[in-house]
Design a protein that fits this description.
Helix content: 40-55%
Number of strands: 12
Shape: globular
Oligomer: single chain
Strand content: 5-15%
Number of helices: 16
Distance between the termini: 11 Å
Length: about 375
């Protein structure tokens, strides 16, 4: 069996790698496509560096439009030449669905898209457009299949990969603290994102928001887990923060070592300030109380605000059907509002715990690994 996969960013690379591992346990399979280091470790020879596709925002895409268009054409041509049994595109819909459109126009290759577009949040007609080029959707969230099926696509809820991530125990947390000289200090995770644009935009705002929090909690230590592509940028931005944080980057570590370090930091933290996204689920898995905050380019923010269909952008709130996690998004993404939200969470950290436990349960915790479930779903509908 031949499978062509396309992932455009780190989260997609993780999904793709788990799916590839699942497929290898179920059938003889050959891989081709575009992916990051985790997918490459599972046997993918990437057509080009996946990092080229990691861009977000309506306005932010414009300077790289020509380059992305060339990569779309190149990827589609590679799919048509390879003639795989199935093309699996993973998240990054602006890139992936354009590839699928070209492939479908010139072949009968089966197409699967992993991660349903958030049509429940904004741009609901995307599902109808997607159905023209996608045969089957693998959904991460339990409430998504009806939206996809109504548009004419097969859809399976396969669980979210966060439920399979190991949570660091007390001994691993103690080792992490000792290695970094943290002692018994309370830890605040600060997560301004994994893309250069969002780190540049959110990093200074987060730094100013932390001033009042550190004044009220002088023993607090800041920890910033980051990705290789933004580590140096984070170092530059945090120079102006009220406290120099411990920056955890992957440089000098194997992928497994860095994963263990990050897991220990998440489990050891007493709270977190994070850019909105799937990181809220990672924090929920470790029962780490959080405040979510995000802002985009002004024009992007203005356009998206008019399209939104929901009143929360935090996945924990959506999956648990609560509003227990505070948010400071868009115009509310200010140092003053973020600081107030953080101080509120630190005064009552228990308020979010039930919502986080319910979220993990609904995402498939305790069941079969999502990567294997996704692999079974792909094979069952071929």
């Amino acid at each position: 069996m031949k499978v062509f996969l396309v992932a455009g960013e780190a989260s997609g690379d993780r999904l793709g790698a788990a799916l590839m591992a699942g497929l290898k346990t179920l059938t003889d399979v050959e891989f081709a496509g575009v992916g990051g280091p985790l997918m490459q470790a599972e046997g993918l020879d990437s057509l080009f560096a996946m990092d080229e596709l990691s861009v977000m925002g309506l306005v932010e895409v414009l300077p790289r439009y020509r380059q992305l268009k060339r990569r779309i054409s190149q990827t589609a041509a590679a799919v048509l030449e390879a003639r795989p049994d199935v093309l699996i595109t993973i998240d990054s819909p602006d890139f992936c669905l354009r590839v699928a459109r070209i492939v479908k126009a010139q072949s009968d290759i089966r197409t699967v898209h992993y991660v349903a577009p958030s049509v429940w949040a904004w741009r609901p007609k995307r599902a109808e457009k997607m159905a023209r080029v996608i045969d089957h959707v693998l959904a991460l969230l339990p409430f998504e299949p009806p939206f996809m099926e109504a548009a004419g696509m097969a859809c399976d809820f396969v669980g979210h990969p966060v439920v399979t991530e190991p949570v660091a125990g007390k001994a691993e947390q103690a080792t992490f603290r000792a290695a970094h000289g943290l002692g018994d200090a309370p830890l605040m995770l600060v997560l301004p994102g994994s893309r250069r644009g969002e780190v540049s935009r959110l990093g200074p705002v987060f730094g100013r928001a932390l001033g009042p929090v550190l004044a009220a909690h002088p023993a607090l230590r800041l920890v910033v887990p980051t990705t290789g592509n933004v580590t140096e940028l984070v170092r530059q931005i945090t120079v102006n923060w009220p406290q120099m944080p411990l920056i955890l980057g992957p440089a000098g570590h194997s992928a497994a070592e860095y994963k263990h370090q990050k897991a220990a930091a998440f489990a050891a933290a007493t709270g977190a300030l994070a850019a909105s996204g799937t990181v809220s689920l990672e924090l929920a898995a470790t029962q780490t109380p959080m405040v979510m905050a995000y802002d985009a380019n002004w024009l992007t923010r203005t356009i998206i605000k008019r399209m939104l269909l929901i009143d929360t952008a935090t996945l924990v709130n959506l999956v648990s059907d609560t509003r227990d996690v505070p948010e400071c998004n868009g115009a509310d993404c200010t140092p003053e509002k973020i600081a107030a939200a953080l101080l509120g969470v630190m005064s009552d950290p228990q308020a979010q715990l039930a919502a986080m436990r319910l979220t993990m349960q609904r995402l498939g915790q305790g069941g079969e690994a999502p990567g294997l479930r996704a692999a079974r779903a792909v094979l069952a509908r071929l």
